[in-house]
C-alpha cells in the first residue's frame, strides 16, 4: 500500500534517513495547519491591537492643550 524505503543519504549525525511518503505528507500537512493557525492568530492580534486605542504622543499633546485651555 504505502512504500517506505531508505535513501542513501546520511544526515549530520551520520544516520541514514528513511523516507516514508505517507509520514512526510502527514508532517507537511501538520506544518501547513500550524502556519494557517499562526496566520489567523496574527490577524486577530493585529485586529485587537488596532481596536484597543493606546494614547499616542500626539494624543497626549492634544489632551495637554485641552487641559490648558480649560484652566
Low-pLDDT runs of 5+ residues are none
**Overall geometry:** rod-shaped
For the CA atoms, what is the radius of gyration?
27 Å
Arrangement of strands in the largest sheet: 1-2
Q: Beta fraction of the residues?
A: 5-15%
* Gap from first CA to last CA: 84 Å
Along the chain, the helix and strand elements come as: EEHH
Number of structurally distinct domains: 1
Which secondary-structure class do the elements indicate? alpha+beta
What's the total number of strands? 2
Instruction: Calculate the mean pLDDT score and round it.
Output: 65
- Number of helices in the DSSP assignment: 2
How would a crystallographer describe the biggest sheet? 2 strands, antiparallel
Helix content: 55-70%
Amino acid at each position: 500500500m504505502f512504500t517506505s524505503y531508505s535513501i542513501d543519504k546520511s544526515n549530520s549525525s551520520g544516520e541514514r534517513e528513511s523516507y516514508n511518503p505517507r509520514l512526510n505528507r502527514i508532517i507537511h500537512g501538520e506544518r501547513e495547519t500550524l502556519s494557517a493557525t499562526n496566520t489567523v492568530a496574527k490577524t486577530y492580534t493585529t485586529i485587537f491591537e488596532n481596536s484597543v486605542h493606546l494614547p499616542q504622543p500626539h494624543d497626549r499633546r492634544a489632551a495637554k492643550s485641552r487641559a490648558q485651555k480649560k484652566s
